[in-house]
Amino acid sequence: GPAVDVTGDRPAWSDVRAALDHLPPRL
Amino acid sequence: VQAAGWPSKTYPPWAEAVDPWLSWSDPDVLMRAVELDRQTLRDVAPSMVINDCRIPMVIAALAEGIQFATICQDNQVPGYCYDGSTIPATWTLPVDAINKVLALLEIDPIADDARWLFARGTMAVPSTAELEPIVGPYVEELDIVHTGLLNKQASTSGSRAADLLFYRTAGSADEEFLAAFADWNGSIYIATGETMVGAAPGEPSRGRVQIGTLWDLDAIGPGLRAVVHHGGHGTTLRCIAEGIPAVVLPGPNPERTANGERAERLGRAIVMHA
Prior knowledge:
The complex is a heterodimer of chains A (about 25) and B (about 270). Chain A is mainly alpha-helical and about 25 residues long.
């Protein structure tokens, strides 16, 4: 599909870091 | 391809610079690209063409009478609508230009959805029917093949996996980034995806942060606790297949948003919007 990266169009990195703690375990 | 020793060709700079998703609605650009792809087919003389939804290559294969298969996912099948009712503009805007070119080549026109071009050959889904069911109003009349998963399954280190990969979601490691992930215990890999994006190859590592154009998932995959990626089809699928949880940052791209939301429904990802 369209090769547009999301750099510059994303949540704050601190919010991404917080989301990582809510992921399921690695299988 | 180079490691396998297979011959390869690269598009000339003017063709590399064409943004296909914005330019195929210009009949002059499209015709020039079709002529380039026809010349490539004459140079290579293949018995079959495998293409990644490249409209001019499909037209070139039709013009040269060469069998072709297009690598697809659900949203590249005719009739698929993200909202259930509206054909995405990506596939309606180029129809007039495509039909002008097809008329010049004395090939039958397509209806009101550019994806009907792909339907003139095999549509190959690089996945399994269980992971990626293809549904839609025309599925029964299309030649759709699931290839199975293309990557071998990596052995995992399960609960000991501690590393983190950013796949085309960060172009460099700036101060905001370093501060946010300072407490991450494992290694952090950044795949910029393109040498032109942010970090140049060989940029010095910053502590546990390692930056490269791409990272080999066969090598680093077993150690990954999670991937932060953009929702591209291959990356989303591979994370699901290998049990790697993901945070998906699709930006404004509807295809990537849909991929991420599918992973989220499977309980394997969190989608975060801009």
